[in-house]
Amino acid sequence: MxxxxxxxxFIKGLNSIFNQKLRNKSFQYYSDQYWNDLPKIQNYINxxxxxxxxxxxxxxxxxxxxxxxxxxxxxxxxxxxxxxxRQLYDLGIGKNFNAFDISDSHLKLAKKLVExxxxxxxxxxxxxxxxxxxKNYDAIFNVGVLHHVFRLSKTIWELNKTLKKNGLMFNxxxxxxxxxxxxxxxxxxxxxxxxxxxxxxxxxxxxxxxxINFKNGDPSEAVNADLLLSTISRFFDTxxxxxxxxxxxxxxxxxxTDEFKKTDLDAQKITDFLITKDKEFTRDRKIPSLFLYxxxxxxxxSMIPNxxxxxx
Length: 312
Prior knowledge:
CATH superfamily: Vaccinia Virus protein VP39
Radius of gyration: 22 Å
Shape: globular
Mean pLDDT: 90
CATH architecture: 3-Layer(aba) Sandwich
Number of domains: 1
Distance between the termini: 59 Å
Structural class: alpha/beta
CATH topology: Rossmann fold
Strand order of the largest sheet: 3-2-1-4-5-7-6
Order of helices and strands: HHHEHEHEEHEHHHEHHE
């Protein structure tokens, strides 16, 4: 091999390594830092969901839905490490829990942390549910899982059939554009606000991720998010619903919370500024609300529209 060929081969190898790292890094902001890591943002979310900045939507269940409590049998979809069912159990919201995930490592960790709580874990795929029992649950909890579903109607129809007649499904979800493909006007507004921030608070991450990021990262991320509300409303009646906004604050804070976590006056001031702009632009319908908290009850079979097209 000539020296020129060796150099070309070496450069090609470096480019391959760099591109792989770039692909991995480009998708990390979906799993590393979250906007609700910031106390002020969490208070903002609380205010949006419960009308009380100091009360989370989970804690709010104890009063707003107290006539249903405790739920005898509860299903957790996509349980991850089990934090949700442990919290619900400890608060007395439910007595007996079934929780599933597709990840063996998540299930192993959840089982290790269960202690003496009445929680049963099993493996299942939210995109192809196989292990649910009809009319078995008094409550279902979905926290950021349904926006990963490819066959959305099929999955939500299965969840409808799994709930008892007057059961409740709690959803805390991303309901913005699929694959976070915000409109040009939305992106323009985000960029204008981001550019107005002091340099230490600006995000350098593209506010509208490239579609290739999803292909190389998680193809299910927000795959049908824009259909989630209409699909849930086809199979469920709304009991309680609140927009959580996020159209400004969420994109700017993607993996960009380090400077905001500092306790200096500027960090607090800029966080308040983002929240104010988030409220204003959503209120004026210049941007969509990206997140939603809803509580729904299953429709009877006779009330479901287009029954002849129910998914098998």
